[in-house]
């Protein structure tokens, strides 16, 4: 097998010089002039085994690139080639395990060749161990999938291709370790093989991504029914290393000659569909649409700009009140992040939060938001405004850090906020991925004196038996349940049961997304504790929130105050 190497440097002269050094090695050499472009090349060339990159590059550093490569292409080995001045800057990347070796400019030719030889050997060992673990005598390669699709398409057999991406698999690797993470992947693969339709073929693409092809192209309802059957076994928890884990997927699908007139294009487009909704933090399955290609390219550009948004002071925060049902007074506020791009204007959080998650930027951004919220709470307290609970969201990436409780403690001490005036919100989807890890983390955070809330309750995998084990103070009912009130008896019954269960467990309940008087009246009848939504106020600036604090109780969306832009 020919060994394929990717060179990454923003200076064309350096790339050409390296190619001259390596031209007699027999390697197939590809190149890219930025980290963003390198990821595109890796995506289109699954045979790449080694990446040799500069460190200092605009938009995305070499260290940031290799961390991303490690997550998305685990068999690929990463090398950094940089000057002496960059040594300290790559320490974090070296410690992360994403960098196999660090080479210094000006380079020594024999050292580069030795490092590359070692890296290709390590990559081959990784691939071989993966083959033993995952039993590739039964799992097709990308090339074999393409060959099979070609046979069907040449025989005018309409076919359907699925691209399956395990949601947040990085969090499993971080909490379990790579060895047990591989065991989880083996269980996933085995279950997919057992539940796949007769006559279909399954292949492993990159890391935690799979593809399935089948000689069938029925109606949308029939295809989605097959996907539901394929994924149905994953409704149950998976036991790995005495931990119970919940696995879900983003799935993109397409039909031959409609969503791709070649086998390679069909598979690529199904991957685009899966990744499109992955970046929007969606979970489910979606058919490919051509517009997704343009949006995916725009997001690659946004990812690059996101690296500089914090230092360019492009982020801000807004606050949305939580209002007590019985008094109309503000008892809490959720702090929400906003990004105003220098040329594109306001970027939707649904887009940039997921980009920040996938590029590890969510950790410094999340710490900035927490600090900003705590400082602002102290400002209002010193001004003599009524006290309330300040809520801040924690992302899945932040929750995977072993140092998170210490970081929270430091922010509390630096800002001076009283711990009992701070609440941290955690999504139910993350919580259910690893119950044991969540329990330990929750207890460590609760020990700091802050309160905890489960956000978006009801949207993820709900195992209510675990709630009485969690040191949680509040449940937030997702707005998707509130929208149907009061007309939907099913939604009304679900909300009623959640409220009753929460009160039995001594938890308060917040209803999100309340917009109408009818919804408010229904929730009051069901004895919901607090309301959050546009009925009282959208998220507003600190100055506008101060006006709300000064003019309580609130009386609904018709409430107006001079100077307020809600």
Automatic annotation (TrEMBL):
Residues that bear 4-aspartylphosphate: 54
Domain Response regulatory: 4-120
EC number, as in UniProt: 3.1.4.52
Domain EAL per the UniProt entry, residue ranges: 299-553
Residue intervals of the GGDEF domain: 157-290
CDD domains, per database record: EAL, GGDEF, REC_HupR-like
Domain of life: Bacteria
Annotated keywords: c-di-GMP, Phosphoprotein
Organism from which the protein derives: Marinomonas primoryensis
Keyword match Transcription regulation: no
NCBIfam families assigned: GGDEF
Record-linked InterPro entries: CheY-like_superfamily, Cyclic-di-GMP_PDE-like, EAL_dom, EAL_sf, GGDEF_dom, Nucleotide_cyclase, Rev_trsase/Diguanyl_cyclase, Sig_transdc_resp-reg_receiver
Gene Ontology molecular-function annotations: cyclic-guanylate-specific phosphodiesterase activity
GO biological process: phosphorelay signal transduction system
Name of protein: cyclic-guanylate-specific phosphodiesterase
């Amino acid at each position: 097998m020919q060994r394929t190497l990717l060179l990454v440097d923003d200076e064309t002269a350096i790339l050409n010089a390296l190619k001259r050094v390596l031209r007699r090695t027999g390697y197939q050499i590809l190149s890219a002039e930025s980290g963003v472009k390198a990821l595109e090349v890796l995506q289109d060339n699954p045979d790449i085994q080694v990446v040799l990159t500069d460190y200092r590059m605009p938009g995305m550093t070499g260290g940031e690139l290799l961390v991303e490569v490690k997550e998305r292409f685990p068999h690929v080995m990463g090398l950094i080639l940089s000057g002496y001045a960059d040594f300290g800057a790559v320490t974090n990347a070296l410690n992360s395990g994403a960098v196999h070796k660090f080479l210094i400019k000006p380079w020594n030719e024999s050292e580069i060749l030795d490092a590359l030889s070692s890296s290709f050997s390590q990559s081959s060992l990784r691939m071989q161990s993966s083959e033993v673990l995952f039993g590739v005598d039964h799992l097709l390669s990308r090339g074999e999938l393409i060959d099979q699709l070609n046979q069907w398409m040449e025989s005018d057999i309409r076919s359907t291709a699925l691209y399956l991406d395990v949601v947040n698999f990085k969090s499993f690797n971080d909490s379990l370790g790579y060895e047990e993470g591989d065991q989880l992947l083996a269980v996933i693969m085995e279950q997919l093989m057992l539940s796949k339709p007769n006559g279909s073929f399954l292949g492993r693409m990159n890391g935690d991504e799979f593809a399935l092809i089948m000689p069938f192209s029925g109606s949308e309802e029939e295809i989605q029914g097959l996907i539901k059957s394929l994924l149905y076994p994953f409704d149950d928890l998976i036991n790995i290393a005495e931990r119970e884990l919940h696995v879900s997927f983003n799935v993109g699908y397409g039909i031959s000659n409609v969503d791709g007139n070649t086998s390679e294009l069909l598979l690529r487009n199904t991957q685009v569909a899966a990744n499109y909704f992955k970046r929007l933090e969606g979970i489910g399955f979606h058919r490919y649409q051509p517009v997704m290609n343009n949006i995916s390219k725009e997001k690659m550009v946004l990812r690059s700009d996101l690296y500089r948004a914090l230092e360019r002071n492009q982020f801000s925060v807004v606050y949305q009140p939580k209002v007590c049902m019985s008094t109309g007074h503000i008892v809490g506020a959720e702090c929400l992040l906003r990004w105003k791009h220098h040329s594109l204007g306001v970027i939707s959080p649904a887009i940039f939060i997921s980009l920040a998650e996938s590029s590890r930027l969510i950790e410094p951004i999340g710490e900035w938001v927490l600090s900003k919220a705590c400082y602002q709470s102290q400002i209002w307290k010193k001004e003599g405004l009524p006290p309330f609970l300040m809520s801040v969201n924690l992302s899945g990436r932040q929750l995977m850090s072993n140092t998170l409780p210490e970081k929270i403690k430091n922010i509390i001490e630096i800002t001076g906020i009283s711990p009992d005036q701070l609440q941290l919100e955690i999504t139910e989807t993350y919580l259910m991925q690893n119950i044991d890890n969540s329990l330990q983390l929750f207890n460590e955070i609760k020990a700091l004196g802050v309160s905890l809330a489960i956000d978006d309750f009801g949207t993820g995998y709900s195992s209510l038996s675990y709630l009485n084990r969690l040191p949680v103070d509040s449940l937030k009912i997702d707005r998707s349940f509130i929208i149907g009130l009061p007309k939907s008896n099913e939604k009304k019954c679900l909300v009623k049961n959640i409220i009753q269960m929460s009160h039995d467990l001594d938890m308060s309940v917040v209803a999100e997304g309340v917009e109408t008087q009818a919804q408010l009246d229904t929730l009051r009848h069901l004895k919901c504790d607090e309301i959050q939504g546009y009925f009282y106020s959208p998220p507003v600036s600190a100055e506008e929130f101060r006006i709300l604090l000064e003019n309580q109780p609130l009386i609904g969306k018709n409430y107006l105050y001079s100077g307020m832009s809600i």
